[in-house]
Write a structure and sequence with these properties.
alpha+beta; nine-stranded mixed sheet; three-stranded mixed sheet; 7 helices
Length: about 400
């Protein structure tokens, strides 16, 4: 039997506030234990306007924090620090040691809202939150505790705004040939959800040794008896096999592996290509107003996936180096040295829209840096039917022409 989360409703002068069990627990802690131990709290970054106290958000267009209530603009100081890459083996040893020694199995963390004083409970993998009591945006400050997850080194801020999304959506749907004309020319109201997606990047110096059998085609003339008893000379292909071996050194830079799972993974795979050179040192302020999460794919699993990517690239390059017309018994042994990694947050929109009179929901994603778009759309039955009739007409016409010119 599937469990259902309980919802508690509280009423105050500002209206009705619906709370789930975790928020109720936080409220109870706040009201019954105001002296909650400070070392149990996770530090949050303030997201309030200094002029009016309203919630701030990061504005992709101007690359600053803005207040929608009073219009105040706050610049984000540019960091002179570079996005650092970390040594894989060093972190791996520390990471595994801490994981073995850690007895903390909590999936939630506590944070004190500095605006209203409430104690809120946040999922441990979340980097952003909204206070259920005062509605202020929060970003979670990274700590240097040993048992914490590996730190995020950089972020690619949103470059595409909601207004840009509307224009991108209109252009995209108008270019869908199979979409019904009433959809392409109609007014749709898509819903957007912005979030930061964690990724791992890996660098590695590799040295591969390989051995294989290289096959080169050659042809010989042989005689063959036909069905009517005649003998004819034909060319027969054969293969000359040559054993080959060698080494290939190769440096991989920034092999990207997505570090979280999403129900729209197949969509994200189509647009999840980022210019990593535009990443900047991680600053929680870029997350204000957006959802973000830490990596759920750990460092080792991420590297194993990166090695699969590297292995396919190396196989292609070695195959090209061997040459020949065909290759057999290829064996490759690769050593990985000086492996570096970093964790970045990358901007992404997912969205959905409905067509009037239809129960179907169509999904799409937009790269928050480049504006690259991919999604689903309804297909016009009328256009598909016309296309099928055209194909059938062309086939019949070709058959008639063949019969007229070659069989008459």
């Amino acid at each position: 039997m599937q469990s259902t989360d309980c919802i508690f409703t509280f009423t105050n002068r500002e209206g009705t506030l619906r709370m789930d069990e975790n928020e109720k627990k936080a409220m109870e802690l706040h009201t019954t234990n105001k002296e909650f131990e400070a070392n149990n709290l996770t530090e949050v970054i303030k997201g309030k306007c200094l002029n009016c106290g309203s919630t701030l958000r990061f504005d992709p267009k101007n690359q600053c924090l803005i207040c929608d209530s009073c219009g105040s603009v706050f610049e984000i100081p540019k960091s002179n620090q570079e996005v650092e890459e970390n040594d894989f083996m060093t972190y791996l040893q520390t990471y595994q040691k801490n994981a073995e020694n850690s007895i903390n199995k909590e999936t939630k963390i506590y944070a004190r809202c500095e605006e209203c004083g409430a104690l809120i409970i946040i999922d441990k993998n979340d980097l952003t939150a909204t206070c259920p009591f005062c509605g202020s945006n929060k970003t979670i400050k990274q700590t240097m505790e040993e048992n914490e997850n590996i730190h995020i080194e950089g972020v690619i801020p949103f470059q595409i705004s909601i207004e840009d999304n509307n224009q991108l959506f209109k252009k995209w749907i108008k270019k869908r040939f199979w979409a019904p004309n009433k959809i392409k020319n109609g007014i749709l109201h898509p819903l957007y959800h912005a979030f930061y997606m964690p990724i791992w990047t890996y660098d590695a110096n590799t040295n591969s040794t390989y051995s294989a059998m290289r096959g080169d085609y050659y042809y010989v003339t042989v005689s063959r008896h036909t069905s009517n008893g005649h003998v004819e000379m034909v060319q027969e292909r054969r293969i000359h096999w040559t054993p080959v071996h060698g080494t290939m050194p190769y440096f991989f830079d920034d092999i990207v592996i997505r570090a979280s799972k999403n129900v729209l993974d197949k969509y994200i795979d189509q647009v999840g290509f980022y210019n990593l050179k535009n990443s900047i040192k991680y600053d929680e302020k870029y997350l204000l107003g957006y959802q973000a999460e830490r990596a759920s794919l750990d460092l080792v699993d991420g590297f194993n996936r990166a090695k699969n990517v590297m292995s396919n690239i190396l196989k292609h390059k070695i195959t090209k180096e061997i040459g020949g017309d065909t290759i057999s018994s290829l064996k490759i042994n690769t050593n990985y040295k000086n492996v570096k990694f970093k964790q970045l947050l990358c901007p992404m929109y997912n969205g959905s829209y409905k067509i009037k009179g239809s129960k179907n929901t169509y999904h799409f994603v937009i790269n928050g840096q480049t504006g690259q778009f991919y999604g689903d759309y309804p297909k016009s039955p009328v256009k598909i039917t016309i296309f099928v009739f055209i194909i059938i007409f062309i086939i019949i016409a070709l058959i008639l022409m063949f019969n007229y010119f070659f069989l008459s």
